[in-house]
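Notes from hallway chat w/ T.B., transcribed later so I don't forget. T.B. wanted the structure written out for a chain they're using in a teaching module, and asked if we could keep both sequence and structure tokens in one place. Agreed to drop them here.
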Amino acid sequence: MRREPNRLLQQLIAEAGFSHKGLARRLNDLGAARGTPGLKYDHSSVLRWLAGQRPRDPVPSLLTEIFALRLGRPVTAEDLGMPAIISPPDLGQEFTHTWQEGVATVTSLWRADVERRRFLIDSTFAIGAGSVGAVRWLTSPPESRLEGGGSRRVGRADIAAIHEVTRSFGELDNRFGSGRVRASVVKYLDTAVAPLLKEGSYGEATGRELAAAAAELTRLAGWMAYDMEQHGLAQRYLIQALRLARGAGDDALGGEILAGMAHQAVYMNRPAHALDLARAAQLSARRSGVQTLVASCHVLEAHAHAGLGDSRACAAGLHEAELAFDRRSPGREPAWLGYFDEAYLSAKFAHCFRDLGDGVQAVRQARRSLDMDGRYVRGRMFNLSLLAAGLMQCGELEEACRVAGGAFDLAGELQSVRSRSYATDLRRRLEPYKREPAVTALRERTRELAAV
């Protein structure tokens, strides 16, 4: 989208007699004085603002102070051609009724996230928003017309690029943790995907493909926020990914997103909410006919039952998951479901048995989970943690410490808050045995990681 030059800022710079370099230097200095050190704007930054780019906060407020001091009169952000952007505090929490509303909401969410808006950073998880989103997904009719009448023609290359970016960033996320890559994903959504949705020209078939591609990448950005334990932000992204999937008419993708929402709810110790979401995901998965996805949804229901302490219902859910998994056809299923293999299923079983206190079964399943794709470094850390916890439940302390040491080593390589939380949980489980030689040695070896 072409930006209009910022003539108001140009006039103020001329009136104040600032050079572009001088204005940037004053901005950096004032930022340091006002508690925002490390600003590194230069003359090129000022040129971009003059061309119409809006700098992220707190730059507009710092500029108003600089110009007010120089000109001897009050100067507002509107005077600078940088009016304050007001976003509703519930931005992204609603599953909108129309495609146009959905595009406006999700692109506003991406922009606010790029700008690191405080209300998003501080947002909390809202069970009601997730429940309403699930109900609207299940009950909303298909989009009647999914066409774009903008000036930019959307072609297959545009959609292929989004899929490739999603695949590449997904691999980096699994290897290094979300902290290293999430900002780049959100920036791509804002700068590359938003113009296609808002200004693109496309027909029905291309529109659905675009919606599905945008949904996959939005889901990834939400999953990354979840990995960083930014749960309110993650929920907003997953709800908006679900809305995009409705535009695409993709039951499998919608089921996968609902399963991700259930996964998050289990992790946050909201098992009753997770149960609702997992059952909604099952309905969507059955409509799609994708058996691996059906298995995923059943195992999440089982995990929710484990969180509620219902071992019988958990066992029934795990049985249904096994049956569905045996019916799968991997070669004919969506590529984004490729992660769900026998090792992943075993890890989910191990989670259930660990939470139910069944150490023997947890160990058996966790050992099977380690026969996994080596690219999933974060997943291996989780699975080692599961094995260590199960071994402790079985009284195998020395082996548990050896396995836990491997988990701690991997956690130190990842920028993943969830990985740190798994490590913290292991330390808590080891605490009753802190005087045992094996635990003492482990604590000494990993003291630096604990400090981090």
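Follow-up for T.B.: The chain has a mean pLDDT of 93. Might be a good example for the class.
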